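User: Okay, second chain of the day. Same drill as before: sequence in, structure tokens out.
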Amino acid sequence: MAGNRRHRNINTSRILRELWISHTISRVELARNLNLNKSTISQIVGELIERGVIKEVSEGISGPQGGRKPVHLELNRHYGYVLGLELRPESYTVVAVDLTGDILFSRTENAVHSGENLVDEARNLLQTLPRELSWIGLPLLGAGLGISGIIDSNRGIILESIPLGIESSLPIVEMLEPEFSFPVFIDNDANSCAWGELAFHRAKQLRNFMFTLIEFHRNSRKQFYDNISVGMGIVFNGQVYAGTRQSAGEFRSIFCGPEEKGQFKASARLAENHGRIQDDPEGFHAFIVELSKHIALFVNTFNLGQIFLGGDIERYQDQLMPVLIQEIDNNWSYDEHVDCEIRFSSLGDKSVAYGAAGFVLERLFVDPEIMDLGTESTWLESDALDSLLKSGA
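Assistant: Same drill. Structure tokens below.
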């Protein structure tokens, strides 16, 4: 019996994933793409339509031989919405999106966060926001938290966070989730941005890329960092790479010595005076060159197809772009031009929160064929899929 339920959950997840990626698709195309028989497709699709998760849309074009026009299917964008939250030491940003990724609501507010109050602050936001957003008229399907630090996203644990002053494991999801009717997820802020690109550019099937998140903090009580923070979300074969100890993407310039306490040698001289590197043209250019040299190394070493840059750096893209292109070419030994697309996010301080919402959608519409065994077991043998299907309108 459990085996039948597991098999059915796998097929349901695969169908939902295919619909999410394709936007609009017919039953015949679903059966062909997933190598499932028509009766299986018809049964599961019928139940999903009845639940309101998917809907039938306008008929397509009949084939060259004529006959019935295929009826297409798509996810019901009004089935529910998800929340993405970024909790910074000095503020938070929240974004609500529907199932297609359209932003329904966003807000950034000042707030002080640290390891001492993080769980309480997150709990308060997850309690009050659904009530505040009742005007959306849709059920909340899940919430994602994007937080700076070393995060074990599978277990929902903050292992360490220098910006938030967290020095030992904090099982934040375990502490929060039992209080809510929707699932709660967490990941590193830069990884959240990478998940967002995967989720909201899903039809493009991005495979190997890196999201570089650059933020300039207004204030800092960090012991080792200055007012610049840079993190990297790395994607290989369509999956965010966490690393052996969940710390992939944590960055510190190779030009820094023991005497530098920040992430960049170029900004070290400003740290003691709490200066803003953006206000020092010479120092800011040195920072851009130093950053670009590292990105170039990753682009060429791992043969990345795209580089995404987001956060506060977006307003300085005219200064960064030519330097980054030049450094990528300088780092390459062969004659041909390096084929790597460079794109800037346009979301500013919403990048992490939007990405955290994308992470939730990636988890809700997960592909069981590419999950690791631990995550697959947790998802398919729990009531998580049933919870998703029962949550909607």
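The chain has twelve helices and 15 strands.

User: Thanks, on to the next one.
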